[in-house]
Design brief:
Elements lengths: L1 E10 L5 E7 L4 E6 L9 E7 L9 E8 L4 E6 L3 E3 L8 E9 L4 E5 L3 E3 L4 E10 L4 E10 L8 E10 L2 E10 L2 H4 L10 E8 L8 E2 L3 E5 L5 E7 L2 H14 L3 H4 L3
Parallel strand pairs: 1-5, 4-6, 5-8, 6-9, 7-10, 8-11, 9-12, 10-12, 11-13
Antiparallel strand pairs: 1-2, 3-4, 12-15, 13-14, 15-18, 16-17, 17-18
Length: 252
């Protein structure tokens, strides 16, 4: 299945962020939430899987554009299940987010479960103008209960004002890597959260299952290794509390 979806958010004359363009294509369904008038100045859109995906051979792409001064919270509502297809071929999902000056994006999908025999590639590319901000999260569950994960390749590229801040890739499902405790340490859940805000941590902060690390050219990356998604979520909360701008994430 080939799917192309697009979302454009702008700021209107009242200073309220509104959805100007929304184009869904199964299985990528974009559902805006309409809050009571005057209660929020951000646009909230949920990504809903309208069909089982990603399956082997699927090619899914979402392009998000946020105009100057606009604010978007893009969220999932249920976990995604990466499954093998009936024929040969890997599945692929590509998300491209572009944010103009003064814009803010919060991209918080639900976990992706990499099932046995799946072969999936996930790409997230975020391009920010100089004074834009972003917080994006990824949670990977390595197999369902009692099964090993299939193959997964993830790529995250983060750029601000033409400067590359982060290029992060992960391969899952290679038996030679999975056998090493220096790889994932036996963890079943890997969660990351990249943040580009007005303030960054001055130095790394670590605990037993998580690390918050400033990036050399701006921004920060939190990495969590845990045995379950509940623990991973709590670790992400602790890392946000340690971030100098963490209190702002729930306010805007």
């Amino acid at each position: 299945m080939r799917s192309r979806a697009r979302l454009v958010v702008e700021r209107d004359e009242r200073g309220v962020s509104v959805v100007r363009e929304l184009r869904s294509q199964a299985p990528l369904a974009l559902v805006p939430r309409r809050p009571p008038t005057g209660t929020s100045r951000q646009a909230v859109v949920h990504v809903v899987g309208s069909a089982s995906s990603p399956l082997g051979g699927d090619d899914l792409a979402l392009h998000v554009s946020v105009a100057a001064g606009a604010r978007l919270s893009l969220r999932g509502i249920a976990a995604a299940l990466a499954l093998p297809g009936h024929g040969p071929g890997a599945s692929r999902s590509s998300i491209r987010i572009e944010v103009a000056d003064g814009g803010i994006v919060e991209y918080l999908p639900e976990p992706t479960v990499v099932t046995e025999r799946a072969d999936h590639r996930a790409e997230l590319s975020v391009r920010l103008e100089e004074h834009a901000r972003v917080r994006c999260r990824e949670t990977l569950v390595l197999g369902r209960s009692g099964e090993p994960p299939g193959r997964l390749r993830t790529d995250l590229e983060l750029e601000r004002g033409g400067r590359r801040l982060l290029r992060n890739g992960l391969d899952i499902g290679d038996p030679s890597l999975g056998a090493s405790h220096g790889y994932l340490g036996g963890a079943r859940v890997l969660a990351t959260e990249a943040v580009v805000w007005d303030r960054d941590p001055e130095e790394s902060v670590s605990a037993r299952e998580w690390t918050l690390m400033p990036l050399a050219s701006g921004g920060s990356l939190t990495t969590v290794l845990s045995g379950d998604t509940i623990t991973a979520g709590r670790c992400l909360e602790r890392a946000r509390a340690a971030h100098p701008a963490g209190a702002e994430f729930s306010e805007w």
